[in-house]
From TrEMBL:
Pathway: Bacterial outer membrane biogenesis; LPS core biosynthesis
Main location: membrane
Domain of life: Bacteria
Gene3D superfamilies: Glycogen Phosphorylase B (3.40.50.2000)
Keyword tRNA-binding carried by entry: no
GO cellular component term, pick one: plasma membrane
Lineage of the species this protein comes from: Bacteria, Pseudomonadati, Pseudomonadota, Gammaproteobacteria, Thiotrichales
Subcellular locations according to the entry: Cell inner membrane
Entry-linked InterPro entries: Glyco_trans_9, LipoPS_heptosylTferase-I, LPS_LOS_Heptosyltrfase
Keywords of this entry: Cell inner membrane, Cell membrane, Glycosyltransferase, Lipopolysaccharide biosynthesis, Membrane, Transferase
UniProt-recorded name of the protein: Lipopolysaccharide heptosyltransferase 1
UniProt source species: Methylophaga lonarensis MPL
Family matches, as Pfam families: Glyco_transf_9 (PF01075)
One of the GO biological process terms: lipopolysaccharide core region biosynthetic process
EC code: 2.4.99.23
């Protein structure tokens, strides 16, 4: 059987879909997947051994340069790639307006969520074969159910298995020798309300160093790199990493002793790599999108307003709209949580 998956973004959401492919491969021997994904995250589908071909979109760039996209031939090339092969089943596992547009461009019927289950209406109109899934479940559970319904098997009772192995991925070339024992501190996040204070990260570096760990601080852009450098100032064995490919970060993550993470895509990478990780939550609901898998724990704000799903903190005591609830999570609490994970591994 040959299946086309349509799931474009974002990093964590893509990782949530990997266990569904593992289920399908166990239930349908010899099954192969092609996957349509945004070019920024093209590495993620390739981590799963059942994925044979990746077809990339460039939604953000296309949206910024609409006229060039329509006249320059890139959209036509994507349409050709999208329809170049025959598939037994095509499944939209994202079910929003962007992925629904891709589903419309794909010739033939597509499976996707029905009106009651769909995240963004009227995306459901793109699907000939509607699927009903309870929205108020963790994303990994929903992805497993969507693919099981599309392919006609029962979701296995076994634990979710990402099936990714980064041990054969090359480590990046760095301007320092990679420490033997190190932790990944994923300090960045796309929302202000997901960020933990810089001085807390600095205190955490000192707690890690007292236990003999070095610290690596990954970055995705210049602003994050400057933040990482500021955190790393407190100790010479704390390193702000240059911007690296996702595969390089994955290789570093799998070799790490553990990780402490903000609520961001790389936190889910720790789960995929089975690296012991404590992830900090305030604005979002861990029951729906929290890190999921072996050796993963959450430290969740106990504020009555959490999760608020706001990008700026509305509380009157908030300084520059920074999250008050995240300030309440102390470095000592966080370090104790990670130590418990490392001891239990």
């Amino acid at each position: 059987m040959k299946v086309l998956i349509i799931k474009l973004t974002s990093m964590g959401d893509l990782m949530h879909a990997l266990p569904a492919l593992t289920d399908a491969a166990q239930q349908i021997p010899g099954i192969e997947f092609d996957w349509v994904v945004d070019e920024a995250f093209a590495a993620v589908p390739q981590w799963h051994p059942a994925v044979k071909k990746v077809i990339t979109t460039s939604h953000r760039r296309w949206k910024k340069n609409t006229w060039q996209t329509l006249t320059g031939g890139e959209l036509r090339a994507f349409y050709r790639d999208l329809n170049a092969d025959d598939y037994d089943v095509v499944v939209d596992m994202q079910n929003n307006l962007k992925s629904a547009l891709v589903s419309v461009l794909r010739k033939g019927p597509v499976y996707g969520l029905d009106k009651a289950s769909c995240r963004e209406r009227p995306a459901h109109l793109a699907y000939k074969f509607p699927i009903s899934v309870e929205p108020q479940q963790h994303a990994v559970v929903r992805m497993r159910q969507i693919l099981a319904q599309a392919l006609g098997y029962q979701v296995p009772s076994s634990a979710a298995n990402y099936k990714a192995d980064f041990r054969n991925y090359a480590l990046p070339e760095l301007d320092f020798d990679l420490p033997e024992r190190y932790l990944m501190f994923v300090h960045n996040a796309s929302w202000l309300t997901k960020l933990w204070p810089v001085n807390y990260w600095q205190q955490l570096v000192l707690l890690a160093r007292a236990e003999g760990f070095s610290v690596l601080l990954p970055c995705g852009n210049d602003e994050e790199w400057q933040r990482a450098r500021q955190i790393a100032l407190v100790d010479e064995q704390a390193f702000a990493l240059p911007r690296l490919s996702l595969n390089h970060v994955a290789a570093l993550m799998q070799r790490a002793s553990g990780a402490i993470c903000s609520d961001t895509g790389l936190a889910h990478l720790a789960a995929v790599a089975s690296t012991p990780a404590l992830t900090l939550y305030g604005a979002t609901d861990t029951d729906l999108i929290g890190t999921y898998g072996k050796h993963q724990q959450h430290l969740v704000s106990d504020f009555a307003c959490a999760p608020c799903y706001k990008r700026a903190c509305p509380l009157p005591e908030a300084i520059d709209q920074a999250p008050v609830c995240m300030n309440a999570l102390t470095p000592e609490q966080v370090w104790h949580g990670l130590q418990t994970l490392l001891t239990a591994k």
